[in-house]
Automatic annotation (TrEMBL):
<protein>
    <recommendedName>
        <fullName>DUF2785 domain-containing protein</fullName>
    </recommendedName>
</protein>
<dbReference type="InterPro" id="IPR021247">
    <property type="entry name" value="DUF2785"/>
</dbReference>
<dbReference type="Pfam" id="PF10978">
    <property type="entry name" value="DUF2785"/>
</dbReference>
Length: 246
């Protein structure tokens, strides 16, 4: 793909028209990355994607992680990519999954997809991935995730837990902010971050109780029992009237 065509595709990836952005630009760019970009073009694509994280329009920001994830899957990686996306992901305020006019936005899900990709590719410390994911879950918001963001985040956590460099102690420590959030709960309506995190943990328990997958292939998760036990311990805090950990 010529640079001019690449730039046109990148422009389309910020379009407010979901058919242009999601229907044409995204698959075209993913195919180009998969086919192989030279080093200069890959660096250019990454630079544009990272600049988009500061774009004033939501749809432009939220598709940037998918571009970085594609580059990681293709074998490209720069540590600064993850650092910049992680800062954006945790701080992003527009957490709508779908908008009637703009189509899919999915900031939470797209960031989770990058977490999963980085974990599976073993290019980012799993503790850093865990910390960012937990931070995204507990970050104050009024938005309850409704478009399977919880499942995408849980899927990412499965890949993080499967990382061979993650220890049981680090896993439990990484989830400790969730424990503090649940333990500090007060009577009244459940805050959105607590609801979102409960949903993520329940999805995580289900996934780890079955055969986890990555790219349709089975994933071995040596710390699955530790993760399930800790998730259940956390969930028991919010449903003490229903069950207790076995």
């Amino acid at each position: 793909m010529r640079r001019s065509e690449l730039d046109d595709t990148l422009t389309g990836l910020a379009s407010r028209d979901p058919e242009v952005r999601d229907g044409r630009a995204l698959p075209t760019l993913l195919a180009a990355v998969q086919a192989g970009l030279d080093a200069d073009d890959a660096a250019h694509v990454a630079a544009v994607a990272l600049e988009r994280l500061d774009h004033p329009e939501t749809q432009a920001r939220t598709f940037a992680p998918l571009v970085i994830a594609a580059l990681v899957e293709s074998g490209r990686f720069d540590p600064t990519w993850w650092q910049r996306v992680a800062r954006w992901w945790v701080g992003e305020h527009d957490l709508r999954g779908h908008d009637d006019g703009l189509g899919w936005l999915h900031a939470v899900a797209h960031g989770a997809d990058l977490v999963a990709t980085c974990a599976a590719a073993r290019v980012v410390d799993p503790g850093d991935l865990l910390d960012a994911t937990v931070a995204r879950c507990i970050e104050p918001t009024d938005t309850v995730w409704r478009d399977q963001e919880d499942d995408r985040v849980a899927h990412a956590l499965v890949q993080v837990v499967a990382h061979p460099d993650l220890t049981a102690d680090r896993l439990v420590a990484g989830l400790s902010p969730v424990r503090r959030m649940f333990e500090s709960g007060e009577p009244g309506p459940v805050p959105a971050p607590a609801t979102n995190t409960m949903h993520v943990l329940r999805s995580l328990v289900v996934a780890l109780g079955q055969q986890p997958l990555w790219d349709d292939e089975p994933v071995r998760v040596p710390l699955a029992d530790v993760a399930v036990a800790e998730a259940c311990s956390l969930l028991a805090l919010v449903t003490p009237w229903s069950w207790r950990p076995a």
